[in-house]
Amino acid sequence: MPLSFRRSLPIAGVTVLMTAALALADIPAGAAPHVRPETRDARQLLDQLTTRSITARSLVDRLDDSDVVVYVRHRVFTVSTLDGRIGFLQSTQPSRYLIVELACGRPQLDQLVTLGHELQHAVEIAGADAVVDARSLAAFYSSIGERTSSIREAQTFETSAARDISVQIRHELLGTAVRTTHERH
């Protein structure tokens, strides 16, 4: 190994440790949260959502009580109609890891609602112990949701619970009442 490369290894190690320390500095004291934004923008979005929506706060609390860890990040999608998605990263006992990706460049209200929608999907997955990889995730959503894509390689699904959560959270964010089926006319 060249001497110059060996000298750079400690510097790279310090950089990794400093990056990890900075990331941990954003995590509140106590148990590590199960919803983990990867950037300051994603952290601000999650904080705003959980401050303004009791429904979203409840979803995060449910995830904190589960074996599911959810990373949240923004990304550019090649499909312009896609606002967000959730995917399976890995399963290493005792935890399962998911990633929520939110479309960049959307209005803030839409990003907030989409994050809540995807957190509902994470709660659905947390309640299904058999979901441990991408294949079991697709099988799970085939059984509880409806398929929204016709391309085999890019299977996408939707659930009525996630649609309902989107409506509920949008109403909470806008400060409007939601009429439920339990109300009398």
Instruction: Calculate the mean pLDDT score and round it.
Output: 82
The largest sheet, given as strand count, sense and whether it forms a barrel, is: 4 strands, mixed
Decide which structural class fits the backbone: alpha/beta
- The shape, in one word, is globular
Report the C-alpha radius of gyration, rounded. Answer: 19 Å
What fraction, in percent, of the residue positions are helical? 40-55%
Quick rundown:
The chain has 185 residues and is an alpha/beta fold. Helix content is 50%, strand content 18%. Strands 1-2-4-3 form a 4-stranded mixed beta sheet. Strands 5-6 form a two-stranded antiparallel ribbon.
Walkthrough of the structure:
The protein has 185 residues and is of the alpha/beta class. It has helices at 3-25, 40-52, 54-64, 108-126, 134-144, 160-174, and strands at residues 35-37, 68-75, 84-92, 95-103, 146-147, 157-158. It has a 4-stranded mixed beta sheet with strand order 1-2-4-3. It has a two-stranded antiparallel ribbon with strand order 5-6. Helix 2 packs across helix 4 (108-126) and helix 4 crosses helix 6 (160-174).
